[in-house]
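Quarterly update from the structural biology core.
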Amino acid sequence: MAQEKEGMDSNSKAMCFVTHQAIFNAVRCGDLEGLKQQLKNKGAEGVSEVMSMQNDAGETILYIAAEIGLREVFSFLLGLCDMEVLKIRAKSDLNPFHVAAKGGHLGRFPLIDFLVLLFHF
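Predicted structure, tokenized:
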């Protein structure tokens, strides 16, 4: 019985990894509709979990959208974040706002400009 449960946990983790990988890929490709579809089935708790997930480099999907300069994807994801997610730093010690500024995207994202000034990230 324990082995059966362990196998189910392993399968569940593998499926979770594949799903999350698909979400990260949708963000990297700028596929807003694909991203929305992936998140649609998650529910509020699942979306919150996805927003705080980090890849091997410690990057969240918001970080990736900011780094690439995907304005629509970034704006959509920003609406799903809480303050704790906004503050998550990658292994590079940068959060999404830092990486947006570093990439020269501040003028492209008025909301980032406002948040940087407001919170002094």
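The chain is about 70% helix and 0% strand.
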